[in-house]
Amino acid sequence: MNRQELLDRVDTIVIVMMENRSFDHLLGTMCQPQFGGRADIDGVRSVLDPNFANRAGDGTLVFPFIMRDGPLTNDLPHERDFVAIQLAPSKITGGPTMTGFVEAYEKATGTTGVKDPPPMGLLTPQDLPTTGFLAREYAVCDRWFAPIPASTQPNRLMAISGFTERDITISGLLPDQHTLFHWLDAHHVRWRVYSAGLSFFTLMPQMWPELLTPRFRRLSDLSFDFVHEADDTRPQVIVVEPDYDDTPVHLSGHACDNHPPLPMSFGEAFLRQVYEALTSNPGRWQRTVMIVTYDEHGGFHDHVAPLQVHCPPPPGASYPPFETTGVRVPTIVASPLVQRGVAKHANLDHTSILALLAERFGQAGEPYSAAVAARTTAGIASVSAVLDSGPPRSDIPHIDPSALAANASLKTWAEPVNAMSNAYANAIEQFAQAHGKDALAKFPEIAHWLSP
After folding, report:
1. Which tens digit of pLDDT belongs to each residue from 382-441?
2. Is residue 442 part of a domain?
3. CA–CA separation, 147 and 326 (whole Å)
4. For the whole prediction, is pTM greater than 0.90?
5. What's the domain count of the chain?
6. How far is residue 197's CA from residue 239's CA, in Å, rounded to a whole number?
7. Predicted local confidence at residue 252, as pLDDT
8. Cα 344 → chain centroid
9. Run of H or E including 342
10. Confidence grade of residue 273 (pLDDT, cut at 50, 70, 90)
11. CATH number for the domain harbouring residue 251
12. Domain containing residue 281
């Protein structure tokens, strides 16, 4: 879809970013005959393909296997050094072989020879009622990669800025980088964030005043707003956030971001809620593009090698440059502007969303930024490559309303256990100290966490 078509046909862009799953792990089985037989999707056609085998420390070969959804025993390694192991560069060509996922898992957990190690597990549409539905009814992007081979914070910073000042996840606050919200404000584009829990932007001090405004709302407000809000005040760009597992306080009652060791069920319910809210206004939905993606692969196996994209640190940052994208992540574009049940093969990553914003809301020929333009030159396309020309579809597929089963301990708050959860805990404390009663009035649940 070209720029003029975007101007004529797209009013609202919705961005939903979940946590820590790879493409093969969630969507790779859809190409198998018993799970849909989608010949157009580059997935795991056979779990016995020798190219997918990972060697364990005891010398055995580990192949992908079909697993059922449920809580995992632990998180999987996915920091920069572990991702380097997972990519397993060839000693001959130097290119990634994608065979080091078991090695990284064993190094992180101090185990070897574990039967069916979690990184090699594949879920099926049977356990993914919402994701499977969206994949059948809309467009699967089977060459969408995390921007860089690193963890949550660097990849989310890439997603909201097009660059990152850090290459690892740490316990402190995020740097106050220029974000898509600054870009949207500069271009007079209305935006809003709906969150099931505490926002990721709680980690950015520059965003604290915005958190207290009506631009940040509860997820429960989305359906009413999408149906009833006037055209002259409705947001043109919407970010919808799950309740993140790493936050010590859960506003929705339980995390639903799909971050291991969570089961997928809570995230499936969250995605269904978002989709049903957006489709509750058929007229507005006809001019909406909903992008569902994952920040990074979270340590799960994927067989497609990352793209060769040079990504230097921005001025002031000192980490070694990245030379490839991250691992492929599951991404679906749901919109009346895509055909039913198609796979799109353009090379994409999270900066593809920023490129789309520039095409739709910027001036003709204006790039989002120099950093995003460099990735475009390197072969990363805009999300506009996924959208189809022609009139929008008139049908609105509906998700089966059956209850979703989940097996996990409910918790409204938890002690921090890793760098990311410590970052959230520190952010909550400092946000409350900086904004006192206003912070507690907007988010009364954080009182359960704060020190007396």
Report:
1. 999 999 998 999 999 999 887 677 666 666 666 777 899 999 999 999 999 999 999 999
2. no
3. 5
4. yes
5. 1
6. 13
7. 83
8. 18
9. strand 342-344
10. very high
11. 3.40.720
12. 3-51+127-385
